[in-house]
Records
---
Amino acid sequence: MCRLVVAVFMIQALRAGCILQDIDRPENPEVEMNVSQIILHWQYPVEEYEVETEDSYILTLVRISHGRMGNDVPAQRPVVFLQHGLFATSVVWVSNLPNNSLGFILADAGFDVWMGNSRGCTYSLKHAFLSTNSTEYWAFSFDELARYDLPASIDYIVKKTGQKIYYVGHSQGTLIGFLAFSTLPKLAQEVKAFFALAPVFYIRHIKSPPALLLLQVPESSLKLLLGDKDFLTKTALKKVLADKACENEVTDVFCAQTIFSLSGFDPENLNMSRIDVYAAHNTEGTSVQNGLHFYQVYHEIQPILRAYDWGSPEENLAHYNQTIPPTYNLSTMKVPTALWSGLRDSLADPIDVSNLVPQIPKMIYHKIIPTYDHLSFVFGINAPQTVYYEIIKMIKESP
């Protein structure tokens, strides 16, 4: 099945054509580094913490406690928690140069920066007693990320720092924020504000060609093809892209088109010298069940978001005390929320975002960026000026 998924991405990349100029450059050292090594490489302090969820998954939290400009004085810094999107890890927040990476920019601006890693990704593969070779380990979707991962991570940070947090999510990181803060009122009280980049809740109007191709396959066939464990882990596309396709200027074009074929591609707003870093740390894994949950959301006729359908009334009854999966309702979410969305986003489509906006009770800001696609919010050269500095300003001006 890995070959099929790789083929889907590569076919789309070839169809996109060659629009970039060749780039002659050496490999970036971060290609071979993990997240903590990348942070240390740029001379920032780093700490790692392991947190166990209520259902016994062990997550890794990464902390940049201060910037590198001598601002390490013992003072209470506002705490910002960054949560990555689907198939990503905490590396996404430090993949660019320090003046373009949100994790580094926040640290230099005087914040205590924490970065989450969802279960099933490269940095959160441990479990108290389940093996990753077992089907039971991978029996989760974004329901569990919201119900267990976020509470464990945020509760730990609040206890460690003695402060409430500011939450920044990208893509799936926004989705689990919406779910957690609307269903767990005690958790919501620990969040001062929610900053949602490329917000995802409904996905009925998704336009990504590779995603649409997979979404047209019958669910029963997808289950047969994908199995019941991990999906797009590091061993699948990472080896093909980072180790083979992104080593030189001749293949950079193909590599870039492949990486961004799922989410949209704007070469003018990318640091093309970092393509090998993006490739090395992309597709870091999730569960097949999580992918199937998105599949189910897409096939809802009305703009509605349900919990995962376990496949039969009996299974649903066992999980939810009702035969049909319950729907999520944002009306109870009391966290002040700011959104940044892109008109060229093929995953968080503008129509889906427009359906989401009226559901948010405490909307404080919404910026629509005409040129932004899905990954512009984390990799865009102008993301600091367009998005990040606005977040910093809002935090510093908040009570």
---
Amino acid sequence: MAVAHARAYHQVADEPRVFCDPFAVRILGEPVLSEMEFDLGLDPDLVRERRLFIAARSRFADDTVAAAIARGIDQVVILGAGLDTTACRHVGAGVRFFEVDHPNTQTWKRRRLSEAGITVPASLAFVPIDFENLSLAAGLAGAGLDRSRGAVYIWLGVAVYLTRSSVDGTLRYIASHGKSELVFDYFYPVTSTPNDPTATQLQARANRVAAAGEPWISFFTADEIRDSLLSHSYAHVEDRSATELLMLYGVQTGNRARDSGPHLVYARTA
């Protein structure tokens, strides 16, 4: 809900608008201008930069999907989809979309879509996976993912909540697909840049999401992520800090350290 709120609020509050999503406000199902509880009392500039990063990572993922479709890729897998609307925005592209998430989350999303009057595209397959009982490989195979053909994997806002072994296992699985592309994000260690004025604010947000039952667990440096990807035979890796990603879309940020906070990665196996 917090990520969906950021995408929706971006549609009405930010200029320039980095990411356009006509479904973002509709699927939210609540007043868009209300403030999220996790943002209360935090530096407004930090909250805005976080919102812009969420918009920018969605824009980058969307651009990656569009470019892959133009090259003939016809499978897109969205891991930890939440209230993502990618499949709704690419209707008629001749592509199959696979949304992976917990069964309860997908039931909630289906209800949101119905209440918002948003039709579930025929090209979208929901892949409900409780990882205590079913593996990612088995779940996607059962949903009809063809691993003999290429695919784009979108994995946003998830890695920080997983153990390092789970992150590594997911990267290994995607690499084993063969001709695959991946867009995902991760967090630098909050304490790795002690001179960054946003470190205290980031820690405050981490404490709040932990109190809500979703603690940040895994942090990585750029070198660690690159080494992990290369060890799994990814052939190409691009890593951008939040500041660098926003600059890509013409958004200027403050004087925060470039390595701090979230990073966005694009990787491919061939």
---
Amino acid sequence: MRAALPRRALATGLAALVAVAGCGVRPSDVIAVGEPPKGPVALTTTIILYLVQDGRLSAVTRPSARPLFRTERLALLAAGPTEEERARGLSTEVPPEADPFLVTVKASGRMVLTASAPGGDLSPLAVQQIVCTAAALPGSPARISVAGARTSVDPRDCPA
């Protein structure tokens, strides 16, 4: 039993020596690579909008210098696709007169998005665009209502 203790200690010591020696990192001199970068760091975030392609919703990502509020994202829907997005066959059903939007969260947790255009003037696809774009933000409720100047659309969830 006494002979096993020195063997075990020797094996442990050898294993530690092999682990340290086998790490593959060799010492080197300082490597000069030039000046460090200067100036402000350009941080971008990605926003998700739902546009229309071939009569169906299509999730589109756009870079943004900062996170956008729901009302700002919905304003982008009303402004329509970028030139590049139009070239890819994307469009919007949300009319320009729907902007500005008002976002209200009810005590029940339901969100109501009120467009400047009457809710009844929005096509079903425009309502889906609005609901899905608003729901794309973290923390959004599952069901969202879209209202207009004179009418309201029942609560919806994003089918996309």
---
Amino acid sequence: MQKFLIWLSAIRLRTLPLSISGIILASCFAYYNGVFDWGIFWLAILTTLSFQILSNLANDYGDGIKGTDNNNRIGPERAVQSGKITPEELFNAIKINVLISIGLAFFLVFWALGVSHFWLTFFFFLLGLASVGAALRYTMGNNAYGYKALGDVFVFVFFGLVSVIGCYVLYAKQVDHVVYLPAITIGLLSTGVLNLNNMRDRVSDKDSNKITMAVKLGEKNVKIYHNTLIISSIIISGLFAVLYYTSAFSLMFMIAYIPLLLHLKRVNRNKVHKDLDPELKKLALTTVLLAILMGLAFLL
């Protein structure tokens, strides 16, 4: 039982809701346009969760063997760092997770597109492999992009654009203009979650030569960057509400602006990096809330 709990900790359950926010939003748009499919929905959820778990395990492994996760780190203790899971055990788990992720991705694409949309199917197969590669290369290997301040770009692309637009295309077999602004919104907020994590670990990451945007920008500028991400998401989602307004229900997701603005207030006043850790969960759950309410607002 204790070993099971250790593996649950390595999976990082609190990161999983954020990963499916784009799927939920895209599915609402698909339902509105009459192209929703329960098979695609559940397979997309499972595939996305497998990618996120793979990314978490790979991150634990990569930072663990490089010594980035050490006693100076502020965040939760990691599996390899603690010694409760050996690098070999974690690496074997990663290999199994890769097979599961690829299998789920291929099954999802075949279910949604089959052979009747050959080039679209081929494109999504490549996208699935790219997603696996992105999950692994964040901290693993000598050229890990997470050590070169590129993690934010990949999170924006995969958590925002690929998650929302890609999932919608699986339903509709075409792109619809309605998904662009929501995809950017979710991408910005997801990037904000990563940036907040990097703000918390900025000092220990710098000492370990892990160059994130937080390390690159420094204490003052990274807060300006964080404000830009969150405020931009509010502006873009607000523009979406105006452009696609049908009734007062179209504005219901703006309730999520309240915790977002309170979050910015706390971040801007922060002096102790450890105090940023609770804000990670709040921002992630607020992103999920906004995605759900935005999707429902479009349906009502």
